[in-house]
Design a protein that fits this description.
single chain; 71 residues; 1 helix
């Protein structure tokens, strides 16, 4: 099952942060494997624009695909 949760907190200075948690999935371009991993993203906003994104996920998937792409 996919679980997606989003939450926004508003800071005293007028900026805000949107936190998004979900189950991420993809098929590797080079390995052709299906990957699934929980992930979390923090979107930092200022003046109505995203100024920074922090991403938390298992990067082993990207590392393996990158190795295969350089063969």
């Amino acid at each position: 099952t996919n679980t997606t949760k989003s939450n926004t907190i508003f800071l005293a200075n007028g900026n805000y942060i949107t936190m998004h948690t979900s189950d991420w999935s993809a098929i590797g371009k080079f390995s052709k494997q299906t990957f699934k991993s929980p992930s979390h993203f923090d979107f930092y906003w200022k003046n109505g624009k995203i100024i920074k994104i922090k991403a938390y996920f298992n990067n082993k998937i990207y590392t393996n695909e990158n190795k295969l792409s350089n063969i």
